[in-house]
Design a protein that fits this description.
There is one protein chain. By secondary structure, the protein is an alpha/beta fold. 30% of the residues lie in helices and 14% in strands. The chain contains 9 helices and 10 strands. An 8-stranded mixed sheet has the order 5-2-1-6-7-9-8-10, with helices on both faces. A two-stranded antiparallel sheet has the order 3-4. α8 links the parallel β6 and β7. 45% of the residues are buried. The structure holds S-adenosylmethionine (SAM). The site of S-adenosylmethionine has 22 residues, from loops.
Length: 293
């Protein structure tokens, strides 16, 4: 049975949802460690859902900066207003004023009420930050340095960044969405594709809200018991811990687009654990545990 709902249970900037809704892997307004843009195609192929359009999308994410953006994704009117503000600020600042623009907007403090201006401010700051998970001011764990906009390396960005990404996302046809703070709070149903991109245990921590391994496994078991297709990404396979009926596949070689960055740079394994046999296998890089028959 084709699932009805997409659950992106550790949403971050929801790369899997962006790929599903925009019809191809699509950059979020800023980059964030652990982004799955490069693995979105592989994840959907593993699930056998390459051209799937869910009726509903449900997210869980504790970080205030990401939550602001997730609210705006399906809100085309507000997102376009935010994009227009990014154009106004970025072009007025010109190249020489980009650092001052970043510092001024960041100094306004943590994300406030959900308005087009706050969406634009949070995105404009994060898109100009050399990020582990964004700036401390926005709930990230690091002070976050300004990312120069001049074309000295391949991370250069346009003056009105991230206007273009916002306009692409605003132009997509979004189903209804719901946003929770914690993956454990989402009502468990049986007709979902429930994808959890857990913080990789023992590597980068995103903050005090990070879920523990036993809780993560418990969440996966609950969704599986309800009958949903369950999939989780981690640096290691989780199938042996979960037991009978779970498969693990390394999709490290199936990444598309830019190379990995941040805490996971150099990490060559990218494990997906799922409660069904994978519908596709990336070359020979497949290991099967638990439910192998
Ligand atoms: C590897 S990142 C996800 C990146 C995401 N797949 C993307 O493409 O942007 C893990 C995310 O899980 C979030 N997280 C941590 N604890 C959580 C919890 N209890 N419930 C939901 N999300 C949580 C972190 O804030 C972080 O954004």
């Amino acid at each position: 049975m084709t699932p009805r709902i997409l659950i992106e249970g550790c949403a971050g900037l929801a790369s899997l949802s962006l790929a599903v809704v925009c019809g191809r892997p699509t950059d979020a307004p800023w980059s964030r460690p652990g982004s799955k843009t490069g693995y979105a195609r592989a994840l959907l192929r593993l699930a056998g859902l390459s051209r799937w359009r869910p009726d509903e999308i449900v997210w869980a994410e504790p970080s205030a900066d990401c939550r602001m953006m997730l609210q705006a994704y399906p809100d085309a009117e507000r997102l376009r207003l935010a994009a227009a503000l990014c154009r106004e600020w970025g072009t007025a600042a010109r190249e020489e004023g980009q650092r001052e623009l970043w510092a001024r907007l960041k100094a306004e403090g943590p994300p406030g009420e959900y308005t087009a201006r706050e969406v634009a401010r949070v995105a404009a700051v994060q898109a100009r930050t050399v990020s582990q998970a964004g700036t401390e001011a926005f709930g990230g764990r690091f002070p976050g340095n300004w990312k120069p906009n001049v074309d000295r390396d391949k991370q250069a960005y346009p003056l009105d960044h991230p206007r273009r990404q916002m306009e692409v996302i605003a132009g997509a046809r979004w189903p209804s969405t719901r946003l929770y703070r914690d993956a454990r709070e989402i009502e468990v149903v049986g007709d979902a594709f429930a994808y959890f991109d857990w913080p990789y245990f023992g590597t980068l921590s995103y903050g005090p809200g990070d879920i523990t391994r036993p809780d993560a496994l418990e969440v996966m078991r609950r969704w599986s018991a309800a009958g949903s297709l369950v999939m989780a990404s981690e640096a290691v396979p989780l199938a042996e811990e979960l037991g009978e009926g779970w498969w693990a596949v390394d999709i490290g070689t199936a990444r598309t687009g830019a190379a990995r960055s941040g805490a996971n740079r150099g990490c060559v394994t990218e494990w997906v654990t799922m409660n069904r046999p994978p519908a596709w296998r990336p070359g020979e890089q497949v290991g099967i545990f638990g439910g192998a028959r």
